[in-house]
Amino acid sequence: MNPMEEHALRMNRRAFLSKTAVGIGTAALGGLLGMRFFRQGENGLAVEEINGAQGILEALHHPAKARRVIYLFQSGGPSQLELFDYKPLLNQRRGEDLPESVRQGQRLTGMTSGQDSFPLVGSLFPFAQHGQSGAWVSSLLPYTAKIVDELCIVKSMYTEAINHDPAITFFQTGSQQPGRPSIGSWLSYGLGSDNENLPAFTVLLSRGTGRPNGQPLYSRLWGNGFLHSLHQGVQFRAAKDPVLYLNDAPGLTRADRRRMLDHLSMLNQKHQEETGDPEVQSRIAQYEMAYRMQTSVPEVMSIEDEPDYIYQMYGPDAMTPGTYAANCLLARRLAERGVRFIQLYHMGWDQHDNLPGAIARQAKDVDQASAALVMDLKQRGMLEDTLVIWGGEFGRTNYSQGTLTDTNYGRDHHPRCFTMWMAGGGIKPGLVYGATDDFGYNITEDPVHVHDFQATLLHQLGINHERLTYKYQGRRFRLTDVEGHVVKGLLA
């Protein structure tokens, strides 16, 4: 190792900033000149040079299978019984009351707890087996059906949360109570960024046609919690200004902006030296990231250079900003540019009534684009180190909420079993994992808890979920709280 490398290894980013006359401005100049910061792990697993911000982990805990995650969160609770979990018994016993021996006194929401009966109802949509795996998939998802051999379909997910807000918060932060860091924030904190011009954690929102005015989402779902604000998710919007407060004020030139940031950095650096507040460093880094994003964000959001066959893959909605299809295409572009965690939220899956008509529209929103994203990543050689996740916060009941008719019914929330799928990132393809009973109500094989899912996600990124912690208010917190285990049966 030459003296320059030894010096770089001894000097972390904070030390570098504190020893330079113009603080972060010099770091920005270094980036423009191609300077890179070195890091070296104790076991040699993380020795690559990086351009982005460094995470707290000096080395990966084990070799990683995935470098990045694209999480397609289906907000509202997709009905597994209409999409993936084929239960012909429910059609055979349609209208019969759910046996108490199956329900076993399970807690219900206030929306159905007062019903006099719980009439069983099967799907109105036909199922068929697909691919070499023979996975059952509904006619609602014809594009997904074509790629089942790329997917790992987990039918045995379960959670304790029974209402939307705590259930989504649980999946995203590891706690049903708000205030904890989200998955993307934990990854930003632990692994840092592979790109100095874009955030490590980005968020894209879309509203589905199944229930356009359904459950809302809150920005705390992609918040940093008690971690430094540097690690919060950055929302990209389908608007003139994709990122709020990014553009300069009228009349302010880029050179003026650079001079202002340099002077502001010196003031902030002096304040940090006086107070020792680490948030000051986060503030400096955010100013600099915003400066670089003024160039990088318009480039990544501009999809006009995509060839026609890509639009055909993702479907006609891909050309409409803010749609699920357009966001899937943007997710691939962000992944190409080194964004580590890309979170999509698609709202509208909460079908308590008029489920057949609503879920058909909702499934059409996501089917083609989800499948296209997987295959697009594969054709670019990115699927093997990109973990793609599709799923919601819980499933739906096997009985009808409200009046059951020949053509209409609804389904309430069901936390005991539901379905998600994953692809790429070292997850075993062509696998159907876990099983539920003939009523689609209880898990019979290989249960996977929310914390198990989170532990497995971190494992694929080279992180031992028990060792990525943050001390706050006298306790060491982690994403999986005090539970969770890696589900080895899902790993390739």
TrEMBL record:
InterPro entries attached to this UniProt entry: Alkaline_phosphatase_core_sf (IPR017850), DUF1501 (IPR010869)
Transmembrane domains' residue ranges: 21-38
Domain of life: Bacteria
Record keyword Transmembrane present: yes
Pfam families: DUF1501
Presence of the UniProt keyword Transmembrane in the record: yes
Recorded coiled-coil stretches: none
Entry keywords, A to Z: Membrane, Transmembrane, Transmembrane helix
Protein name (Swiss-Prot/TrEMBL): DUF1501 domain-containing protein
Species, as recorded: Phaeodactylibacter luteus
Taxonomy of the source species: Bacteria, Pseudomonadati, Bacteroidota, Saprospiria, Saprospirales
